[in-house]
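Lab notebook, design round three. We kept the backbone fixed and only want residue identities now. Task for the bench partner: fill in a sequence for the structure below.
Input C-alpha cells:
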C-alpha cells in the first residue's frame, strides 16, 4: 500500500515531535495532576520539587501571564487547576528540568493538601442534579405524541455505550522553541494548529502573530488531538516563555491514558412504534452524554448525535432530546464519528427490540425503513443522491446474504457449543462540520523555477492519507508527475486560520482549496504559453502529461521550459486558494437547516462465532458495500475503510474503560485495556466500493471516507447477540456495549 509516508515509517525515518533534533538548551517538562476526582485545594506545595536535582522551574496557575483558560467552545476549563479540582489527571503544576527523568522525579515531590468532595461519574445522576453544560436540545419532526396510537407495537428500552481510548501510536507531544523578541515556535502533535496558536496566545497574553505552530504529521489523532493537544502545547509554551529556553513535553502512555479525554460514554432511553408491516412510525429518544469535567467539544458532539438519531432510516415522527452532563471524569472529546456512532447504536438497538416483538428478523425492518431520495431528516434536510438502498441491495447480491443466514442456521442446528450469528449494519453519515463556519480551508501553492511544486494547506496528516490525496489533486490539476509535488508541513505562518483536520473533511476542503490555487497558476501559464506560441489563444492551450498542447496538438513546449519562461517574463508562480463549502447552513433557534454538503452511505454484514462454553468469540467476516464516490487514491480509501471497521469493532467488543466509583480510570495501560490486534482482525474483510458513484459536492467527485466506516463495526454487537440468542432462545436482549466475553458468558449462563 503506497502512501507518501510508508517508506519513511517502515524504515523508522519519519519525524514525529519527539524525533525533532534537540535544540541547544532543551528542557523537559513533566505534569503534576490531581489525584482526586473532585475537591478543593487547601495547599499546593512545590518547594521540594523546586529543590529537586536538575529542576529549573515549577509553574502553577499563578505563573500564567494571560488567561488561565483553554476552553474552545465554552470557557470552562483552566489550563492549570486553581482552587477547584474536577477530575483525576487534571494538570495542577508543570515541572521543568534538564532531563525527562529529573522532571518526572521532581513532579512526584509536589505535595497537595485537599478537601475531597463526592465525585459524580454517572451522567444520569449529573442530569438529575442539574449539572448540565447547556440546556438540553431537541430535534423533532412530525408529532410523536399523536403517532403512538397509530402504531401496532410500541417498545421501550435502555441503551448504554462505553467510551473508547484513542490509542494513537504517538502520545500527546509538544516542543516549544522561543525565538527573538518573545516569539514562540510550537511543534505540536495537533489536528488543530490554529487551535493551539489561539489558545497559547490567550494563555500567554500574546497576539497570535507571535506564535507559529508547525505540524509535520501525527502518529494518529482519531479526534483525540482535535482539542486536547492544546493542553500539552500550552504547558510547554508557558514554561518556554517563562524560562526563555526550549521545552519539550511528551506524555508516556499511562499518563496519556489517565489524563486525556476519550469517546463519550452515553446512556439513552428509547421508545419506538411500528405498524404490523414493519414500518417505523415513531421514535423518541433521550441521550444522556457523559461529558466529563469540562465542555471541550461535547456540545458539538451532542449536536452530531442528534443529526444521526435515525441513521440510514426514514421515520416520519421523531423526537430526540440530548443533554451534556458534567461528571468528574477527564473531559470526553472527539473520536471518529463524533457522537454519530452513539446515536446509531441506539436506533439499531431499538430496531432489534422491535424485531423481537414482531417476530421478524431485524434485517426485514432495516430494509423496510431505509432512506429514499428526498426523504426528510429530523433536522429538516432532504436526502439527495441517496444510495442507502443501492448499497443494501448490492450487498445482498455481492455477498449472497440470504445464503449467509441459511448457512448459519444449518451450522447452529448441528453445533451445541458453538453458535454463529450475523447482522447487517447500514450507515448514513453527514459530511461537513456541524458548525457551519468551520467548513473553510486554504492552500498556498508555489511553483519553483525548476518546475517542482510546493503545497501548503490547512490539512494535518495523521495517517489518513490527506497529503497523498492533495498531492494527487495538484498533480492532476497541473497534469504533471506526482514526483514534482511536495506537501509541506502544516504551518500557521503559511496557511492561517485553519479549521481542525476533522469531520472527515480534510481532503474535501483542502483538496478543493489546493485545486483552486493551482487553477489560478494554470490560467497564468496558459497565457504565457499563448505568448510563446505565435498566433495562439490561451483558451486553446492545455497542459497534458507535462506537455503544452495547442488545440490538442503537441507544441514541443514542456512544463519545465514553460515555467522557466514564465519566471523570466515575471509571471506570478504562486497562488493562494480559498474554499468554503457552499449552500450549507443551520438555524439552531429552530433546529432546522441543511448542515451537510452530502451524506455517505453503505451497508455491512458482520458474521461471528461464539464459543458458548467460554463466552469467547471470533469475528469471522465483515463484508461491506461502501459508497466512496470516485476515489482519489484507492489504497488510501481501502485502508480507511478497513481501519475504521476494526476500530469500530474494538469499540463494540473488547475495548472496555473501567472507572472506580472514585472516578479513577482502572484500565490505564495495555495490560488492562485491549485494542484490536492482527489476531482479532477478521480473516474475511471484503470491501466493495459502489461502482460508478459520483459526487458533485466534493473535489474530483470523491467522497469523504475518514469516519463513516467506523460505524460498520456496530454490526458486531448485534451479530454477537444473534449468536447468543441461538444458544439461549427467547432470552431478552440487552444493549450495553462493549460486548466483552464476560458479558457474553453472563448472558449464556447467569
Ligand atoms: N486514519 C488514521 N490512520 N489516523 C487517524 O488519526 N483519524 C480519523 C480518520 N482516519 C484518523 C484516520 C478521523 S477521526 C477523522 S475526522 C479523519 O480521519 C480526518 O481526516 P480526513 O478529514 O482527512 O479524512
Ligand atoms: N466534526 C468534528 N469536529 C467538529 C465538528 C464536527 O462535526 N463540529 C465542530 N467540530
Ligand atoms: Mo475526527 S473525530 O472529526 O477528528
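Proposed sequence:
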Amino acid at each position: 500500500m503506497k502512501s507518501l509516508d510508508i517508506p519513511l515509517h517502515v524504515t523508522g525515518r519519519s519525524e514525529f515531535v519527539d524525533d525533532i533534533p534537540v535544540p541547544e538548551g532543551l528542557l523537559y517538562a513533566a505534569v503534576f495532576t490531581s489525584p482526586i476526582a473532585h475537591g478543593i485545594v487547601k495547599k499546593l506545595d512545590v518547594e521540594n520539587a523546586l529543590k529537586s536535582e536538575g529542576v529549573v522551574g515549577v509553574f502553577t496557575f499563578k505563573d500564567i501571564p494571560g488567561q488561565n483558560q483553554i476552553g474552545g467552545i465554552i470557557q470552562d476549563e483552566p489550563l492549570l487547576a486553581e482552587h477547584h479540582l474536577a477530575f483525576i489527571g487534571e494538570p495542577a503544576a508543570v515541572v521543568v528540568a534538564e532531563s525527562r527523568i529529573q522532571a518526572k522525579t521532581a513532579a512526584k515531590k509536589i505535595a497537595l493538601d485537599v478537601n475531597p468532595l463526592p465525585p459524580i461519574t454517572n451522567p444520569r445522576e449529573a442530569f438529575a442534579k442539574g449539572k448540565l453544560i447547556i440546556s438540553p436540545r431537541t430535534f423533532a419532526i412530525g408529532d410523536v405524541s399523536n403517532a403512538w396510537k397509530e402504531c401496532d407495537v410500541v417498545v421501550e428500552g435502555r441503551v448504554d455505550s462505553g467510551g473508547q481510548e484513542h490509542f494513537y501510536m504517538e502520545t500527546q507531544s509538544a516542543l516549544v522553541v522561543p525565538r527573538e523578541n518573545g516569539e514562540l515556535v510550537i511543534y505540536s502533535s495537533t489536528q488543530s494548529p490554529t487551535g493551539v496558536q489561539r489558545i497559547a496566545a490567550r494563555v500567554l497574553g500574546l497576539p497570535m502573530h507571535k506564535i507559529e505552530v508547525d505540524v509535520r504529521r501525527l502518529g494518529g489523532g482519531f479526534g483525540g488531538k482535535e482539542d486536547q493537544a492544546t493542553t500539552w502545547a500550552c504547558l510547554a509554551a508557558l514554561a518556554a516563555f517563562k524560562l526563555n529556553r526550549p521545552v519539550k513535553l511528551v506524555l508516556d502512555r499511562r499518563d496519556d491514558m489517565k489524563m486525556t479525554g476519550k469517546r463519550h460514554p452515553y446512556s439513552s432511553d428509547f421508545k419506538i412504534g411500528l405498524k404490523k408491516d414493519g414500518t417505523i412510525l415513531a421514535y423518541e429518544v433521550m441521550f444522556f452524554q457523559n461529558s466529563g469535567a469540562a465542555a471541550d467539544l461535547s456540545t458539538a458532539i451532542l449536536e452530531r448525535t442528534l443529526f444521526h438519531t435515525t441513521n440510514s432510516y426514514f421515520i416520519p415522527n421523531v423526537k430526540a432530546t440530548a443533554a451534556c452532563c458534567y461528571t468528574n471524569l477527564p473531559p470526553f472529546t472527539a473520536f471518529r464519528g463524533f457522537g454519530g456512532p452513539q446515536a446509531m447504536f441506539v436506533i439499531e438497538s431499538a430496531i432489534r427490540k422491535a424485531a423481537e416483538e414482531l417476530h421478524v428478523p431485524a434485517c426485514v425492518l432495516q430494509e423496510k425503513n431505509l432512506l429514499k431520495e428526498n426523504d426528510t431528516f429530523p433536522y429538516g434536510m432532504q436526502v439527495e443522491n441517496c444510495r442507502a438502498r443501492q448499497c443494501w441491495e448490492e450487498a445482498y447480491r455481492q455477498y449472497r446474504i440470504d445464503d449467509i443466514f441459511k448457512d448459519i442456521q444449518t451450522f447452529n442446528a448441528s453445533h451445541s457449543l458453538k453458535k454463529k450469528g450475523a447482522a447487517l449494519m447500514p450507515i448514513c453519515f453527514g459530511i461537513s462540520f456541524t458548525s457551519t463556519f468551520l467548513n473553510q480551508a486554504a492552500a498556498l501553492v508555489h511553483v519553483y523555477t525548476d518546475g517542482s511544486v510546493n503545497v501548503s494547506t490547512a490539512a494535518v496528516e495523521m495517517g489518513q492519507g490527506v497529503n497523498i490525496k492533495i498531492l494527487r489533486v495538484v498533480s492532476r490539476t497541473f497534469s504533471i508527475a506526482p514526483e514534482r509535488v511536495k506537501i509541506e508541513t502544516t504551518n500557521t505562518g503559511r496557511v492561517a486560520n485553519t479549521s481542525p483536520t476533522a469531520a472527515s473533511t480534510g481532503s474535501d476542503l483542502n483538496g478543493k482549496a489546493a485545486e483552486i490555487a493551482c487553477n489560478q497558476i494554470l490560467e497564468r501559464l496558459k497565457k504565457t504559453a499563448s505568448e510563446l506560441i505565435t498566433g495562439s489563444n490561451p483558451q486553446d492551450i492545455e497542459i497534458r502529461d507535462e506537455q503544452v498542447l495547442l488545440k490538442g496538438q503537441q507544441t514541443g513546449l514542456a512544463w519545465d521550459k514553460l515555467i522557466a519562461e514564465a519566471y523570466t517574463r515575471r509571471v506570478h508562480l504562486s497562488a493562494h486558494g480559498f474554499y468554503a463549502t457552499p449552500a450549507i447552513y443551520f438555524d439552531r433557534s429552530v433546529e432546522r437547516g441543511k448542515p451537510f454538503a452530502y451524506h455517505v452511505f453503505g451497508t455491512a454484514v458482520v458474521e461471528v462465532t461464539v464459543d458458548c462454553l467460554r463466552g469467547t468469540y471470533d469475528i469471522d467476516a465483515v463484508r461491506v458495500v461502501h459508497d466512496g464516490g470516485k476515489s482519489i487514491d484507492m489504497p488510501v480509501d481501502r485502508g480507511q475503510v478497513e481501519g475504521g471497521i476494526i476500530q469500530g469493532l474494538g469499540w463494540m467488543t473488547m475495548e472496555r474503560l473501567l472507572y472506580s466509583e472514585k472516578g479513577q480510570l482502572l484500565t490505564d495501560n495495555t495490560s488492562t485495556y485491549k485494542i484490536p490486534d492482527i489476531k482479532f482482525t477478521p480473516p474475511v474483510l471484503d470491501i466493495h466500493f459502489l461502482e460508478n458513484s459520483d459526487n458533485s459536492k466534493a473535489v474530483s467527485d470523491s467522497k469523504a471516507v475518514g469516519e463513516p466506516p467506523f460505524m460498520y463495526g456496530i454490526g458486531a454487537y448485534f451479530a454477537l447477540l444473534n449468536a447468543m440468542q441461538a444458544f439461549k432462545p427467547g432470552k431478552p436482549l440487552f444493549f450495553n456495549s462493549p460486548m466483552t466475553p464476560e458479558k457474553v458468558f453472563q448472558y449464556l449462563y447467569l
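Keep this in mind before ordering anything: The CA atoms of residues 135 and 323 lie 7 Å apart.
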